[in-house]
Automatic annotation (TrEMBL):
Active site: H94
Record motif Histidine triad motif, residues: 92-96
Domain HIT: from-to ranges: 4-108
PROSITE patterns xref list: HIT_2
Superkingdom to which the source organism belongs: Bacteria
GO annotation terms (biological process): nucleotide metabolic process
PANTHER family, alphabetized: ADENOSINE 5'-MONOPHOSPHORAMIDASE HNT1 (PTHR46648:SF1), HIT FAMILY PROTEIN 1 (PTHR46648)
Molecular functions (GO terms): catalytic activity
One Pfam family linked to the record: HIT
Protein name: HIT family protein
Organism from which the protein derives: Candidatus Merdivivens pullistercoris
Length: 134
């Protein structure tokens, strides 16, 4: 059975898309640590663990994530875009990109930010707009 993230990339489950190409898809985390918290996934493999990806997919994913991080930095006020790979919940490789004001923003145990549907849509559109300008 397809993972939830494969179904998101196919559009079978809704998401707030921030970037896409033939091989990769990026969308807002539904339970964000900070505004603009994004997940970047490969579309064509469901490998659970990033370091099990074939070299081509691994390199493509990290390159795509770097471009998404640049778009996030332009769209969301932050000092840095933090990068994390956990995979404790969803067994489909994904990179977290998290706009940071301070180290504590990367604490995965902290309370998540509450965002309305309109906030999610606005943030996603702004990142997507910047991504398409890169
Ligand atoms: P982990 O597998 O530990 O890296 O965590 C999975 C992340 O995916 C969590 O931050 C969740 O909030 C996020 N997540 C789970 N389901 C969805 C979904 N349907 N849309 C967006 N983000 C999701």
């Amino acid at each position: 059975m397809a993972t939830i993230f494969t179904r998101i990339a196919k559009g079978e489950i809704p998401s707030y898309k921030v970037a896409e190409d033939d091989d990769f898809y990026a969308f807002l985390d539904i339970n964000p640590l900070t505004e603009g918290h994004t997940l970047v996934i490969p579309k064509n493999t469901e490998a659970d663990y990033i370091f099990d990806l074939d070299e081509h997919t691994y390199e493509g994913l990290t390159k795509f994530a770097a471009k998404v991080a640049k778009a996030i930095k332009k769209a969301v006020p932050c000092k840095r875009v933090g990068v994390a790979v956990l995979g404790m919940e969803v067994p489909h490789t994904h990179i977290h990109l998290i706009p940071l004001q301070s180290e504590s923003d990367m604490d995965f145990k902290k309370e998540r930010v509450k965002m309305s549907e309109a906030d999610f849509a606005k943030t996603a559109n702004e990142i997507l707009r910047n991504f398409e300008l890169l």
